[in-house]
Amino acid sequence: MPNVVQLSDVSVIRDGKPILDSVTWSIDDDQRWVILGPNGAGKTTLLQIIAAMLHPTSGTAEILEERLGAVDVFELRPMIGFASTAMARKLPRNETVLNVVMTAAYSVTGRWNEEYEEIDSRRAQRVLAEWKLDHLADRTFGTLSDGEQKRVQIARSVMTDPELLLLDEPAASLDLGAREELLQLLGGYAREATSPAFVMVTHHVEEIPVGFTHVMLLADGKVTASGPLSEALTSENLTETFGLPIEVTEIDGRYAARAV
Ligand SMILES: Nc1ncnc2c1ncn2[C@@H]1O[C@H](COP(=O)(O)OP(=O)(O)OP(=O)(O)O)[C@@H](O)[C@H]1O
What we know:
Elements: E1 3-14, E2 17-28, E3 32-36, H1 43-50, E4 58-63, E5 66-67, H2 73-76, E6 80-83, H3 85-88, H4 97-102, H5 118-130, H6 146-158, E7 164-168, H7 176-191, E8 197-201, E9 214-219, E10 222-228, H8 229-232, H9 235-242, E11 246-251, E12 254-259
Parallel strand pairs: 3-8, 3-9, 6-7, 7-8
Antiparallel strand pairs: 1-2, 1-4, 4-5, 9-10, 11-12
Helix pairs in contact: 5-6
Protein name: ABC transporter ATP-binding protein
InterPro entries: AAA+_ATPase, ABC_transporter-like_ATP-bd, Metal_Ion_Import_ABC, P-loop_NTPase
Pfam family, one: ABC_tran
């Protein structure tokens, strides 16, 4: 499936005000996108549309070749991996890390009466190993550090082998070491040909993992620039998006930005 998201003229109106304004966006399965923009720009709202959690007020949204409004979203959502701080708050703190990841197979957050199969447990253990969490499988989620909890959320979101992976600020609140460790893992995952299309919201260009390919810049609900990182993540476009003079630099695929 080469095309996984196709938004045409998508707007979301709240209290009479557009919080997304005529957004047109196409995502192919081999692309890894980052969404950047100031507070309140509409980044999370845009992510919720492509997560099939929110319908546009106008325009059309096709996700995994299904049109929102004409598809049962409960069939679509298991194919979409999603991790955000709001979702993390729903995870039971007294559940083991293995169960937090494994329960994603049944779209629940804690173990109840579901019958798990050996294959679920094996897959959860493999995903934990991929995200360097295997040594924490039996710990309870609430006892983990912030960085470990973020990795568990991501492991949970890839447990179902999604066709589209969406992460809302995965590196927020992490210390330098935990951030760099996470960016290495995210970058490694992004560079694998078998990984799904990937979209990550962040506040900082420093948090763009090596291996990401495209950027969507948003301000006031509107797209200010979008395209390959090398073409769209420019000082000029960041200056327009954030409304102050910004200079961006790139070294070996990592970006940094500062006001000038
Ligand atoms: N249900 C709602 N009703 C009214 N306004 C809303 C609603 N949801 C979001 N908004 C507003 O829409 C705008 C965009 O919100 P959104 O959370 O998408 O922005 P964001 O770019 O993710 O912001 P941040 O970087 O601060 O997380 C904000 O001004 C927010 O207050």
